[in-house]
């Protein structure tokens, strides 16, 4: 790598991609890679999906940006469609996941304030959570490695050390505004939250008049084989943050809420210069066109099952490396017996792109449009990479 003028915040792989098509990426020197990272669960419809390309080009020819000083028809359309497909009645558009979570936290606090309980501003979160990298969302995530060196942790967040309903009960007090969690912890290591735990949280929130806030930035928009992961548990949240998949690669996010809860967000309480801009709305609507097509989500669920079963076979063949297969739909994780970095690098040599996560997990989040060909390629790459690592391990012993 040459000397760089960029912040050194990322340990980037030495790869430059020039174009993408479906689940495949090509470098400048014409090497092809199968993309099972999908820009960290973002490219939900793969690369250069014709419907998305067309929507973006059409909009680019007409109008890019006007700000929220004016009505943006694409916002109304996308918000109505999101509300029709979910628990929500109201939507605020953002440019990223962290901003969607920030809006969710503000909405929860404002709801309590509006109800005459301004002292209720604390959000309970869970160990292993990830909610973004702004000052508030690193406080929400509660992870020391992200908080270190950035001054005092923003107040109003309490991270609970276990997914334990008794502990949650004990932790709710007169300052609690809501509970925030991911239905499947993504960065934390594809840790699925039991549906029974989500149900218990829902009941607890109802009993204590605090809000259930879901962060579906990674799990949302079809990733788990349902439009949103909360559907699996048969509950609905009061507020939900989404991003990643809804833009299919265009930076955007949204905060969804029930009418009652969003009521406090009156003119002047929140804003974003870019949020919901015409380009983003064109792409978001185009993503929904495809994801809401009949059979699309069923297909994601089916493909996810096939991939997960194949991975279970891989676990049986490589028990010296793989402990467990985790996740749902096309958000899957291989819990390894070591940190995932070496396997990620080895897989890259085999032409497969993956991404690590916490808890020694190798994360697979391919485009939702993959088929058997891609599954076969990925498995063969995994087998070859694990064989190489096994041989290297034998040599060193
Ligand atoms: C990626 C992610 C975020 C942050 O999204 P950004 O767009 O990077 O700000 C928040 N929550 C979850 C669950 C995520 O996976």
Automatic annotation (TrEMBL):
Compartment list: Cytoplasm
Note: May also have succinyldiaminopimelate aminotransferase activity, thus carrying out the corresponding step in lysine biosynthesis.
Cofactor(s) annotated in UniProt: pyridoxal 5'-phosphate
Gene: argD
GO cellular component: cytoplasm
Iron among keywords: no
Cofactor binding comment, as recorded: Binds 1 pyridoxal phosphate per subunit.
CDD domains named among the record's database cross-references: OAT_like
A Pfam family matched in the record: Aminotran_3
Recorded family membership: Belongs to the class-III pyridoxal-phosphate-dependent aminotransferase family. ArgD subfamily.
Higher taxonomy: Bacteria, Pseudomonadati, Pseudomonadota, Alphaproteobacteria, Hyphomicrobiales
Pathway: Amino-acid biosynthesis; L-arginine biosynthesis; N(2)-acetyl-L-ornithine from L-glutamate: step 4/4
Listed name of the protein: Acetylornithine aminotransferase
């Amino acid at each position: 790598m040459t000397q760089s003028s960029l912040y050194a915040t990322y340990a980037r792989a030495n790869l430059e991609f020039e174009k993408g098509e479906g689940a495949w990426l090509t470098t400048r020197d014409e090497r092809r890679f199968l993309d099972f990272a999908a820009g960290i669960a973002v490219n939900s419809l793969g690369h250069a999906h014709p419907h998305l390309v067309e929507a973006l080009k059409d909009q680019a020819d007409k109008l890019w940006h006007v700000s929220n000083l004016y009505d943006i028809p694409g916002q109304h359309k996308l918000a109505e469609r999101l509300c029709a497909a979910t628990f929500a009645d109201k939507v605020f558009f953002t440019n990223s996941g962290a901003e969607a979570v920030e809006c969710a936290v503000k909405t929860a606090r404002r709801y309590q304030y509006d109800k005459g309980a301004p002292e209720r501003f604390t959000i309970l979160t869970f160990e292993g959570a990830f909610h973004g990298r702004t000052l508030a969302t690193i406080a929400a995530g509660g992870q020391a490695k992200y908080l270190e060196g950035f001054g005092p942790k923003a107040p109003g967040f309490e991270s609970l050390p276990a997914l334990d309903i008794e502990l949650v009960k004990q932790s709710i007090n007169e300052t609690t505004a809501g509970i925030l969690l991911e239905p499947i912890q993504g960065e934390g290591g594809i840790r699925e939250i039991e549906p029974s735990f989500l149900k218990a949280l829902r009941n607890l929130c109802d009993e204590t008049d605090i809000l259930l806030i879901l962060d579906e930035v990674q799990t949302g928009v079809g990733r788990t084989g349902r439009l949103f992961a909360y559907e699996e548990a048969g509950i609905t949240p009061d507020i939900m943050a989404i991003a990643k998949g809804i833009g299919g690669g265009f930076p955007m996010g949204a905060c969804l809420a029930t009418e009652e809860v969003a009521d406090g967000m009156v003119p002047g309480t929140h804003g974003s210069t870019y949020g919901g801009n015409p380009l983003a709305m064109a792409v978001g609507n185009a993503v929904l066109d495809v994801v809401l097509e009949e059979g699309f989500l069923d297909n994601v669920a089916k493909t996810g099952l096939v991939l997960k079963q194949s991975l279970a076979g891989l676990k049986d063949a490589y028990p010296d490396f793989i402990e467990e297969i985790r996740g749902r739909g096309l958000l899957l994780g291989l819990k390894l017996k070591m940190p995932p970095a070496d396997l990620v690098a080895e897989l890259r040599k085999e032409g497969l792109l993956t991404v690590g996560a916490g808890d020694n997990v190798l994360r697979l989040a391919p485009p939702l449009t993959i088929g058997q060909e891609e599954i076969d390629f990925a498995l063969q790459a995994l087998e070859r990479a694990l064989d190489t690592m096994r041989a290297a391990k034998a040599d060193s012993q």
